[in-house]
Specification:
CATH superfamily of the largest domain: Aldolase class I
Bound molecules: cobalt (II) ion
CATH class of the largest domain: Alpha Beta
Helix content: 40-55%
Radius of gyration: 22 Å
Strand order of the largest sheet: 1-2-3-4-5-6-7-8
Shape: globular
Structural class: alpha/beta
Amino acid sequence: MQIKFTETVLRDANQSLIATRMPFSAFEPILSTLDRAGYYSLECWGGATFDSCLRYLNEDPWERLRRIRAAAPHTKLQMLLRGQNLLGYKHYPDDAVRLFVKKSVENGIDVLRIFDALNDVRNVEVAVKAALEAGAEVQGTICFTLSPIHDLKSYIETGKALKKLGVQMLCVKDMAGIMSPKTAFELVSALKKEVGLPVAVHTHATTGLAFMTYLRAVEAGADVIDTAISCFSGGTAQPATETLDYVLREYGYETGLDPKALHEINGFFKPYRAECLQSGLLNPVVLATDTDALNYQIPGGMLSNLVAQLTAQKKLNRLDEVLSEVPNVRKDLGYPPLVTPMSQMVGVQATSNVLYGKYKTVSKEIKAYLRGEYGRAPGQINEDLRRQVLGDEKPLTCRFADTLPPIVEKARAEIGELAGCDEDVLSYIAFPTQAESFFLKREEKRKKVFTYTIERTDA
Ligand code: CO
């Protein structure tokens, strides 16, 4: 019996615990050890890392990827990609998606975990095809959520649709940490049996379920689990790598991990963790176990957003009403999974319904959703609501990206000489403002180095 591990310290744990602020220099010295620890893959790119590099760390995200690749040549490098949304929340035209995926693989990515927040397979199709063409491994992803219409049957259908696209593996992605051990066992068993692909399971330790959930998922035949090295584990991140390695070995699984290397990795990150706690970057609140998500059946992040929103409006006394309105709004919208950005959109609408009257105001995001611009709703949308908001306007039946003109050449012309390569153009397409200011700073630095070199030669 074998179980493989994906280490998340460089991406999801970094993102969940310290807002993705870990600079390359903080983990560079440990990359060679990570490389020989025996992981199936290192999740190290995509998600918020790209934005954070440009916006806060003054790093070229592509350069980061190439340097990780060079320092860890033996382990698969993995990224998280939001299908047609790439690394953001809007839909990009197909030419940008194709080029982004191709360049990600060229710069060092081996495994792409590709998902769509609504589990609308049309929104991952172009990215999956491009990744397979580039020779990468693809984890076709099923976003896990709790709702009256999300059941084994619906997840199996999504799994089968992903298999048809040619993905080599499925991933069950529980971003809120609300998948119970019992559900994990049933879901993984059903996917293995009905779809017949290897299954990776991704969860978060937020509600305290994660260790049990992974154990049962592995017993059901899961092939890969996502964990974080212990000093960057727990809370809103993944459960600890060493603990699961220990437990699963005891049960007779081959993990392929080298406990000595894990010990070394953890020892390396400990002082950095202490620094993060000291500076406030790591807030002890995110490390606590928070079971509210289980009681309210909504993700912890969404709950804290609602509390913040109501506190700002001095209406915290209406929290219970808002919480009971959330399922109504969700039902009207056809039960979208409560992941970003849907969780925010549903939360804001529920609050507005309670404070100002049912659908008296509707955000432009909800309007776009009702138009079909986010993709197909998992369930039936309330037609009265749709008519009230859209009037006679017909909702889209095609994929939203089919309505978008190509963008790559236009962006290339727009950013001009500031971009040195395709990768720069893609950074600009994904995060125009941040990329442009990063390029300008880079240009300045180059000029300085150039002047310095000339002076030295003269002397
Ligand atoms: Co996650």
